[in-house]
Amino acid sequence: WEAILKPRVIVIDDDKITEDICAEFLEEISESVDFFNNPVDALKSAKLNPFNIAIVFMDHNFKNKSGDIVAYGSDYISDFKKLNDTIKVIMISGDKSDETLRKWFIAKDDNCIFKGDDCWSKVVESSRDALREFEIRENLSKRRSKFLVPEPIKLMNMVGRSMELEKACDMLIKAAPTKHTVLILGETGTGKELSAKGVHKLSERKGKFMEINCGQY
């Protein structure tokens, strides 16, 4: 729970020039940048560890050696977002046609960058924003994990969170279904009564739990 995921950036483009320019910019701000020349291979890689992916830069189309278009990047946006709904998919292309924009809009990309003079500064700007959001999300996840109550403690209706308490509750849960007498020892205020109530609740005993304070007699 304590580990913070390192953000990963994926660039999918069959243009080697794009890869070289992206590498120069992205590797300054991200520890892990992976390049793929087609969305199929990129998706296979992403499925191996989907939760550390912060950004996917996706080209608009992919061509074979003959120059024919064999895939559109927009068709794979939803596949990446299914892996991790916080992934930012940013389309990057030299095609500025209305049809291209329509495809991206329908596929629900998070941003679009057109190749041009200021293209790479926009890549860096959008990357920094997405990576900052990723870091905030991971830090929040770490903080929330500190307040997660282990199942044995919840079952025993205890208050607190520690390895010792979890082990004690686990032992009581294992003892509850048996027909053996359970002796619970501890200082005042350590939860002996709560422990007894928990054992009774989780046992097969159908009678009402009766609390007797021997110190009163």
Structure description:
The chain is about 45% helix and about 15% strand. By secondary structure, the protein is an alpha/beta fold. The strands form 2 sheets. The chain has a 5-stranded parallel β-sheet, with helices on both faces. The chain has a two-stranded antiparallel sheet with strand order 4-5.
Helices and strands in order, then pairings?
Layout: E1 8-12, H1 16-26, E2 32-36, H2 39-48, E3 53-59, E4 61-63, E5 69-72, H3 77-83, E6 88-93, H4 98-107, E7 111-114, H5 119-145, H6 151-155, H7 163-175, H8 192-202
Parallel strand pairs: 1-2, 1-3, 3-6, 6-7
Antiparallel strand pairs: 4-5
Jot down its keywords:
five-stranded parallel beta sheet; elongated; two-stranded antiparallel ribbon; 217 residues
Mean pLDDT: 79
What is the tally of beta strands?
Answer: 7
Please give the largest β-sheet. Answer: 5 strands, parallel
Strand content: 15-25%
Strand order of the largest sheet: 2-1-3-6-7
Low-confidence stretches: none
Instruction: Enumerate how many helices there are, as a single number.
Output: 8
Class per helix and strand makeup: alpha/beta
Radius of gyration: 28 Å
Order of helices and strands: EHEHEEEHEHEHHHH
Looking at the structure, what is the overall shape? elongated
User: Alpha-carbon distance between the termini?
Assistant: 48 Å
Task: Classify the helix fraction into a percent range.
Answer: 40-55%
